[in-house]
C-alpha cells in the first residue's frame, strides 16, 4: 500500500516531464507546400467531372436479385419475420402487445368521440391499420392507431361539414344522430382514403424529405396547440353540455365562450363522474411512475377505470337517474367495406394533405428516436407508404385517419416489445373485443372517455416547458414555436399548420439575409484567419483585407453582401469611383478644349500666310516665285508641326497617361490596402445574381486600384461559376485560391502598389 502511494508522485513527474518534452515538438511542427490557385490545384489533383450515374437506367433493369430486393423493401415483413428469434423475443412481444391492446381499447373509444364519430369506429381504427403496418412498416417500436392530434383534426372536418344544425328534426328540434353519424362516417372514411392516397403517392416518388420542412420546434408547438383543441373539445362531455359547433378561425375561442356561458346548465352527475375518473387515472399513472422498476408491465389504469365505470353505470343507472350520457349501442362484428365518395374529394383535399403531412411527421420523428436508441434504420419513404396503406385500407373499412401514439409507443418499448409482432398481437386482441366483448361497454359514460383523453394530454401539455428551454438555447426556434402555437390555436389546425410552415421558411430566408459579416485577421504564427472583432490576438495583414460571410450569397442577400463589404473595408468605394470619374471627365474635357485651341491656332496661321503672299506680290513672275516658295515653306512648316505634335503627343501620352488615371495623380486618397480576399467557404450554390455581384465587386475595387482574389471555394461552386461564364480574360482561375492563406501570401507577393513590401509575405 505504501509502495503504491510512494510511486504515484514519481509517475506523475514522469508524465509531466514527457509532456514538457512533447510540447516543443508540437510547436515546431510545420507544413510546407506551394501556393495553389484553382488552376494549379486542378492540375495537381487531376480534377475532372465526377461520372454521372444515370439512375433512370436502373429503373428498367430486371433481375431476380432486383425483384427480391424490391419486394423486401416494400414488404419488410418478409425480410425480418423468417429471421425472428422466437425464444428471445416472443414472450416480450406478447406481453407488450397485450399491454398496448389494453391501452388501445379505451383510447380508441375516446378518440373516436374526439373525431365526432361513434366510439366503435375507434376500435376499427385499432385493428385494420395496426395489422397493415405490421406488414409494411419499418419501425419496430411505434404503435399505430388512434391519436389525439389526428382525431381532433378529423373532428374539425366532420363537425364543420356535417354540423348538428344540419340534422335538426322539425317537431322537437332534436338532432337526428343516426343520419348525422352516417354522414360523418362517410366524411371520415373518405378523408382517410384521400390521406392514404397522398401518403402512398408521396412515398412512391420518394417525397419523404418533405417532413424536413417541419422542424422540431414547429412540430412541438403545433402538437401543444392541438392539445388545447383536444382539451376544449372534451369540455362538453365533462360538463354534460351540448354547445354549438364552430369551425374556421377563432373557433376555439368561440367554443370556450359558449361553454363558459352554459356552465350553469352543467349536469352534476356528469361532472362528478369525469372528476372521479380523472383522479383515478392520475393516481394510477403516478403509481406506475413510482413502481416502474418493480412492475413487469404498467398497471392498466385506463382499462380498470373503464371496467369499473361501466359496472357502476350499469348498476346505479347513471344514464336514467342522473342524465349521464353513455356510449350507447356498440354493434358486434366487423363492418363491410365502404367505397369512398369522390364528390367529397374537392372539399377534403386541403385537410387531407395537412393531415397526411402531420401524421407522417409525428410517426417518422418518433420512429427515428426508437431506431437510434435500438440501433436499426427506419426508411422514411417506406414509412410514408406504410402509413398511407394503413389509412387507405382503413378508410375502405370505415376508419378515420391514424398515425402513431406517443404514449402507446413508449409502453410498447418499455414492456419488452422488439418487433411489430407486438402490434399484431394487440390488433388480434382488439379483434376479439370487436367480435365478442364490445357490447359490454354500452353503459360506459362518455365523461369517463373524456377524462381518459384529458389525462393523456399530460405529455403534450408539458411541452409548455419548451418556452423556457428555447429562450435559453435558441430564441429563433422559440419564435417559431410561439408563432406556430398562436396560429394553430387561433386559426384552427389546418390554417395554423400552413402559417407555421410559411413562417418557418420565411424565417430561414430572413436569417440568410442577415448573416454575420466579418473582416478576418491572422492568428499569430498560424495560417488560421478569424474575425478580428472576436479574436483580440488576430491581426489584419497590412495591405490585405479578408472578408467573409457566414452564409451563402444569393439573390436575397447579394446587395447586402456588397454593401457590407464596402462598409467593412473602411472606404466609400462608390463615392471614390464617382469622384474619379468626374475628375477624369474634367481632364478629358480640358484636353479636348486644348486640342481645339491648337487646331484653331494652326488654321489661323495657315490663313495668315496665304494672305501675305497675295498682298506682297507685284508682278506675275515674282508672284509665281513667291507662291512656289510660300507653298514650299508652308508644306515644310506643316510637316514640322505634325511631326512635333505627334512626337509631343506620344511623349505626353507616355508620360501623362498613368498620372492622369491614378487616384494619386487625381488628388484622391487611395485605400490603405492593395488587395481584397473574399473567403467563399460558406458559398454552397451560385445563382445569376451572385455572379453579377461578384463581377461588380471585381470591377468596383479594381477602379480604386485594389486587386480582388477569391479563396476556399468548393468544387461544385467552381463548376457553377464556370457554367455561368464567370471566368473570362479579366477574371481567371488564377484569382481563385485553395485557402485564404494562399490568397493572402500571393497578394503580398504581387501588390498593385507600394503599400507593402513583398518581403512581408515570407514572414507569413
From TrEMBL:
Keywords annotated in UniProt: Coiled coil, Membrane, Transmembrane, Transmembrane helix
Domain STAS: 534-747
Transmembrane segment boundaries: 109-136, 193-215, 270-287, 299-317, 348-372, 384-411, 417-435, 447-464, 479-510
Region (Disordered): 621-664
Positions with biased composition (Basic and acidic residues): 653-662
Location of the protein in the cell: Membrane
Coiled-coil parts of chain: 577-604
Record keyword Ribonucleoprotein present: no
InterPro entries: SLC26A/SulP_dom, SLC26A/SulP_fam, STAS_dom, STAS_dom_sf
Biased composition (Polar residues): 623-639
One Pfam family recorded for the sequence: STAS
GO annotation, cellular component aspect: membrane
Protein name stated in the entry: Solute carrier family 26 member 6
Amino acid at each position: 500500500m505504501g509502495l503504491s502511494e510512494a510511486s504515484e508522485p514519481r509517475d506523475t513527474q514522469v508524465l509531466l516531464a514527457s509532456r514538457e518534452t512533447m510540447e516543443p515538438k508540437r510547436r515546431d511542427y510545420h507544413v510546407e507546400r506551394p501556393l495553389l490557385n484553382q488552376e494549379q490545384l486542378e492540375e495537381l489533383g487531376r480534377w475532372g467531372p465526377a461520372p454521372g450515374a444515370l439512375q433512370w437506367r436502373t429503373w428498367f433493369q430486371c433481375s431476380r436479385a432486383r425483384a427480391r430486393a424490391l419486394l423486401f423493401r416494400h414488404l419488410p415483413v418478409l425480410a425480418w419475420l423468417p429471421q425472428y428469434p422466437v425464444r428471445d423475443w416472443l414472450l416480450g412481444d406478447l406481453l407488450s402487445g397485450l399491454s398496448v391492446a389494453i391501452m388501445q381499447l379505451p383510447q380508441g373509444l375516446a378518440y373516436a368521440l374526439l373525431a365526432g364519430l361513434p366510439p366503435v369506429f375507434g376500435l376499427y381504427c385499432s385493428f385494420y391499420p395496426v395489422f397493415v403496418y405490421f406488414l409494411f412498416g419499418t419501425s419496430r417500436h411505434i404503435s399505430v392507431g388512434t391519436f389525439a392530434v389526428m382525431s381532433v383534426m378529423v373532428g374539425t372536418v366532420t363537425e364543420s361539414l356535417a354540423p348538428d344544425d344540419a340534422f335538426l328534426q322539425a317537431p322537437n328540434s332534436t338532432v337526428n344522430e343516426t343520419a348525422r353519424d352516417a354522414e360523418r362516417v362517410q366524411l371520415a372514411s373518405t378523408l382517410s382514403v384521400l390521406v392514404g392516397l397522398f401518403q402512398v403517392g408521396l412515398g412512391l416518388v420518394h417525397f419523404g424529405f418533405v417532413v424536413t420542412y417541419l422542424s422540431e420546434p414547429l412540430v412541438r408547438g403545433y402538437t401543444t396547440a392541438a392539445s388545447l383543441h383536444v382539451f376544449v373539445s372534451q369540455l362538453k362531455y365533462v360538463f354534460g353540455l351540448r354547445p354549438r359547433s364552430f369551425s374556421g378561425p377563432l373557433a376555439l375561442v368561440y367554443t370556450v365562450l359558449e361553454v363558459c356561458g352554459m356552465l350553469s346548465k352543467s349536469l352534476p352527475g356528469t361532472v362528478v363522474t369525469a372528476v372521479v375518473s380523472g383522479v383515478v387515472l392520475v393516481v394510477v399513472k403516478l403509481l406506475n411512475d413510482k413502481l416502474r422498476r418493480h412492475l413487469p408491465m404498467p398497471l392498466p389504469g385506463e382499462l380498470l377505470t373503464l371496467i369499473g365505470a361501466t359496472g357502476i353505470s350499469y348498476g346505479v343507472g347513471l344514464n336514467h337517474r342522473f342524465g349521464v350520457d353513455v356510449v350507447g349501442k356498440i354493434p358486434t362484428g366487423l363492418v363491410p367495406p365502404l367505397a369512398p365518395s369522390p364528390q367529397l374529394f374537392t372539399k377534403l383535399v386541403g385537410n387531407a394533405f395537412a393531415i397526411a403531412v402531420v401524421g407522417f411527421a409525428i410517426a417518422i420523428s418518433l420512429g427515428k428516436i426508437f431506431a437510434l436508441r435500438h440501433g436499426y434504420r427506419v426508411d422514411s419513404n417506406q414509412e410514408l407508404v406504410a402509413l398511407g396503406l394503413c389509412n387507405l385500407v382503413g378508410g375502405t373499412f370505415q376508419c378515420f385517419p391514424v398515425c402513431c401514439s406517443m404514449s402507446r409507443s413508449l409502453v410498447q418499448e418499455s414492456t419488452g416489445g422488439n418487433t411489430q409482432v407486438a402490434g399484431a398481437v394487440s390488433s388480434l386482441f382488439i379483434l376479439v373485443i370487436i367480435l365478442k366483448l364490445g357490447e359490454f361497454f354500452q353503459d360506459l359514460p362518455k365523461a369517463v372517455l373524456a377524462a381518459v383523453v384529458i389525462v393523456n394530454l399530460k405529455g403534450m401539455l408539458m411541452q409548455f416547458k419548451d418556452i423556457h428551454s428555447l429562450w435559453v438555447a435558441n430564441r429563433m426556434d422559440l419564435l417559431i414555436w410561439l408563432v406556430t402555437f398562436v396560429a394553430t390555436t387561433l386559426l384552427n389546425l389546418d390554417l395554423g399548420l400552413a402559417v407555421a410552415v410559411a413562417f418557418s421558411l420565411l424565417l430561414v430566408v430572413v436569417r440568410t439575409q442577415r448573416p454575420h459579416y466579418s473582416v478576418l485577421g491572422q492568428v499569430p504564427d498560424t495560417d488560421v484567419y478569424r474575425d478580428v472583432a472576436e479574436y483580440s490576438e488576430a491581426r489584419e495583414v497590412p495591405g490585405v483585407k479578408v472578408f467573409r460571410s457566414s452564409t451563402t450569397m444569393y439573390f436575397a442577400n447579394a446587395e447586402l453582401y456588397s454593401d457590407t463589404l464596402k462598409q467593412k473595408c473602411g472606404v466609400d468605394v462608390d463615392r471614390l469611383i464617382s469622384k474619379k470619374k468626374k475628375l477624369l471627365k474634367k481632364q478629358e474635357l480640358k484636353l479636348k478644349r486644348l486640342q481645339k485651341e491648337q487646331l484653331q491656332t494652326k488654321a489661323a496661321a495657315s490663313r495668315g500666310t496665304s494672305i501675305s503672299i497675295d498682298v506682297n506680290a507685284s508682278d506675275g513672275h515674282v508672284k509665281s516665285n513667291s507662291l512656289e516658295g510660300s507653298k514650299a515653306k508652308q508644306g515644310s512648316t506643316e510637316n514640322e508641326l505634325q511631326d512635333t505634335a505627334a512626337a509631343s503627343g506620344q511623349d505626353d501620352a507616355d508620360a501623362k497617361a498613368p498620372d492622369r488615371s491614378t487616384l494619386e495623380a487625381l488628388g484622391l486618397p487611395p485605400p490603405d490596402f492593395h488587395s481584397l480576399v473574399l473567403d467563399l467557404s460558406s458559398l454552397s450554390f451560385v445563382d445569376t445574381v451572385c455572379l453579377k455581384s461578384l463581377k461588380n465587386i471585381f470591377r468596383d475595387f479594381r477602379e480604386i486600384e485594389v486587386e480582388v482574389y477569391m479563396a476556399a471555394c468548393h468544387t461544385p461552386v467552381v463548376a457553377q461559376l464556370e457554367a455561368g461564364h464567370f471566368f473570362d480574360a479579366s477574371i481567371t482561375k488564377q484569382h481563385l485560391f485553395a485557402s485564404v492563406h494562399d490568397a493572402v501570401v500571393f497578394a503580398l507577393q504581387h501588390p498593385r502598389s507600394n503599400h507593402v513590401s513583398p518581403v512581408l509575405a515570407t514572414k507569413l
